[in-house]
Structures are given as structure tokens and as C-alpha cells.
Amino acid sequence: MVVNADGDAYGTIGGSIFEAKAIQRAKQVLKTGKSEFLEFELNEKSTNGMVCGGKALVLLDYIDVGTNNVQLFKNWQESFNKGKRLYYLVQIKVKYSPLRIV
Fold first, then answer.
1. How many CA atoms within 13 Å lie on the side-chain side of 54?
2. Most buried among 18, 24, 32, 92, by the most CB within 10 A?
3. DSSP per residue over 48-81, as a string?
4. Rounded Cα–Cα distance for residues 70 and 2 (Å)
């Protein structure tokens, strides 16, 4: 999902309150220019009855509009205009990860 500074979102990460919270935080990331993780509990209380269970960890990645990323934005716009999907992959290197993959 791509979110602009106005909060307009293109694509989805599943809808509901979870997605609304991600859009809200993404707008803050755009203001600060600093990427962050958003962790969200997927339970009845946090999702207003839309339960799939577990936790979601979303990377809210700030991408500068500078010249280094012009091709990325061109590719995204072309894919969007053609109704195609575009995947943005990021390798995260950390010494300690809060993620536990089961």
C-alpha cells in the first residue's frame, strides 16, 4: 500500500481499523521522514469484530522523493495506471529482531 501526505492510499493491507491506523501513522512518517514499524494486535477488541487473530508488523518505510527514487515512482505510477501490481521489497538487517517466525 502506498500512502501520500494527504492520507490518500493506493492498494490495501487488509482494510478495517488496522489499515486506518497504518494510514494515520504513515502520514506521521511522511512528516518526520523517518521509517518505523507499526505493530498491531489482530483481536476482536482492536479490529472491531473483524478477527483473524495474531499480530501484524508493518514497515512504514519513508521513501524520499529525491532523484535517487525517480525510477521507483515512475515504475509504481506505470503499474498503477495499467492496473498491475508492484512489489517493493526491503531487506532488513538488525542485530536483534522482535519477530519470531514459527
1. 7
2. 18
3. TT----SEEEEEE-----SGGGHHHHHHHHHHHH
4. 15
Q: Using a CB cutoff of 8 Å and minimum separation of 24, what contacts does 79-82 make? A: 80/10
The cell numbers describing 44, all together, are 476482536
> pTM of the predicted model, to two decimals?
0.74
DSSP symbol at 14: S
The tens digit of pLDDT for each residue in 25-84 reads 999 999 999 999 998 887 766 556 656 678 888 999 999 888 888 888 888 889 988 988
Exposure string over 3-29, b if 16+ CB within 10 A, otherwise e:
beeeeebeeeeeebebbeebbebbeeb
